[in-house]
Structures are given as structure tokens and as C-alpha cells.
Amino acid sequence: MTSANHRPIAVITGASSGIGAATAVALHEAGYSVVLGARRTDRLREVAEPLGGLALHLDVTDRTSVEAFAGRIPEAAVLVNNAGGALGADSVERADDERWRTMWETNVLGTVRLTRALLPVLEASSGGHVVNVGSIAGFETYAGGGGYTAAKHAVRALTKTLRLELLGRPVRVTEICPGLVETEFSLVRFAGDREKAKAVYHGMDPLTAGDVADCVAWVVTRPPRVNIDEIVVRPRDQATATAVWRGR
Ligand code: NAP
């Protein structure tokens, strides 16, 4: 459960930007040694180096990559399944198979693969914890969001299933469900279109990646008997996925 410097190890997927990168900093500050995974290893190293963390290439859509990643992690206390995101805003009637498949592969199967691969080491630690970064898209829907909301609904279902399946075993399970957070999320969703991405946060004050990282750090630092099942965290300016006050 501890690294050579006696800090417990936290593994964070999708740590090359946004919420994952901020979570790496927050968990380092909370006393963890961090192991970070993502595809952009240059960006990952920039996050890991100042923290003395380990940056490892990881593509959560690729089983071989997940197995190689997990093979480098003989011990861990925390797994943050954060890698994910949305692609496009297709209506159901115009759904693009490839985009929908990638969203499913990344958000859903990625979470399954990492959890399956690391559960043995989490369980072997004196108190393991799986934190899944879901979304309010896991229990709300919006027009044009079908591919993403379907995937995050699935993340929610599998998180609740895992909680049941691990009952009586020393592994906690938490879902963090953020509303609008200003990261690279919208830039990725709209294939690099900066204007479209900026418009998502226009006139309102979104969460920062650090706000969500604070939630992750808080849940993992509760006493081992305490399982925070879920946290829903939104900007004050957002009441639902579609009710957003843009008067700023
Ligand atoms: P982001 O800045 O785009 O970060 C996404 C991260 O996921 C990146 O580090 C990316 O790294 C990684 N990733 C994507 N595909 C991957 C793959 N196949 N294998 C490994 N890593 C992969 O966006 P973010 O907002 O921080 O998103 C983090 C999580 O929060 C996602 O699950 C997202 O659905 C969720 N979320 C975001 C918001 C929001 O408004 N931003 C709201 C609710 C929930 P590489 O590209 O380097 O692989």
C-alpha cells in the first residue's frame, strides 16, 4: 500500500490534463505518491515530475496497454478512474458509430478494465478505494448528449454494481459527478474548435479542475469505515444539465 517513501500510492487515469492533472496535485498534497496514466506522455511527465510521481503511457481503450500499465503497479491504495470525455453532440438519429464507440470504450470499458486489473492490489492494501469520475450526465440527459449521457449512465450503473459486489471486502467505491468544469473537455468534444468550446462556459462561472480534485481528495482521506457513495458538484450558476444562468 505504500511506496518506497512510505506514502500510499494513488493511481490516476487521464492525468495529462484537466481534472486528472489537478487530482494528481491534490492527492500528492494529501500525502499520496502518484502514478499517472494517459496517452500524451509529454504532458503527463510535466504533471508528474514536480510531484515526484510516475508517468506511464496508458490507453484505456486498449486491453494490452491497460495490462502493461497495471503490470508496473505492484501496490496501490487508490484508483481514480478519470480518463474519459465526450465526442461531438450528435442527435440519436444522426449518431456517428465511431464517436459513440469511442465514448463507450473510454468512459465505460476503460473504467471496467482498470478496475479489474488493479482490484487485486487495491484489496491487498490495508484499505483500497476506487473513485470513478462520472458526471451529472450519469443521471440527466440533454439533446445532443446521447452518446455521452449513455456512457456516463453506464459508469454510474457499474459504480453502484461494484459497491454491491465489494460489500464486506476492504475496498471503498465512490462516484464523483461534476457539472460544468472548464478543462480541455469541450475542446476535445468539438474537435479543437475553440469558439464552440468557449461558448459552453459563456456568461457563467464554471467549476475548475481543482474544485473537483478537492472532492476526490476529501473522499479518499475520510476514515476507512466511511464510504462516500457519491458527490454531485456543480457550479452555483448551474442547476441542471440544461438550466444554466449566463448573466455574468
Ligand atoms: P480533459 O482535460 O479533456 O481530460 C481528459 C483526460 O482523459 C485527459 O488526460 C486524456 O489524456 C484522458 N484520456 C482520454 N482518452 C483516453 C484514453 N483512451 N486513454 C487514457 N486516457 C485518456 O477533460 P476533463 O474535464 O478533465 O475530464 C476528466 C473526466 O471528467 C472525464 O471522465 C469527463 O467525462 C469527466 N467530466 C468532465 C466534466 C467537464 O465539464 N469538464 C464534467 C463532468 C465529468 P490523453 O488525451 O493524454 O490520453
Can you characterise this structure?
- With 248 residues, the protein is an alpha/beta fold.
- The chain has a single domain, classed as Rossmann fold (3-Layer(aba) Sandwich), CATH 3.40.50.
- Helix content is 40%, strand content 15%.
- The chain contains eight helices and seven strands; from the N terminus they run E-H-E-H-E-H-E-H-E-H-E-H-H-H-E.
- A seven-stranded parallel sheet has the order 3-2-1-4-5-6-7, sandwiched between helices.
- Strand 2, helix 2 and strand 3 form a beta-alpha-beta unit.
- Helix 1 packs across helix 8, helix 3 packs parallel to helix 4 and helix 4 packs parallel to helix 5.
- It is globular, with a radius of gyration of 17 Å.
- The termini are far apart.
- The model has no long low-confidence stretch (mean pLDDT 97).
- The site of NADP nicotinamide-adenine-dinucleotide phosphate has 32 residues, from helix 1, helix 4 and helix 6.
Task: Please render the helix and strand layout as text.
Blueprint: E1 9-13, H1 18-29, E2 33-38, H2 41-48, E3 54-57, H3 63-71, E4 78-81, H4 97-124, E5 128-133, H5 146-165, E6 171-178, H6 185-189, H7 194-199, H8 209-220, E7 230-233
Helix pairs in contact: 1-8, 3-4, 4-5
Bound molecules: NADP nicotinamide-adenine-dinucleotide phosphate.
NADP nicotinamide-adenine-dinucleotide phosphate (NAP) is lined by residues 13-20, 38-40, 43, 58-61, 82-85, 106-107, 133, 135, 178, 180-181, 183-185, 188, 209.
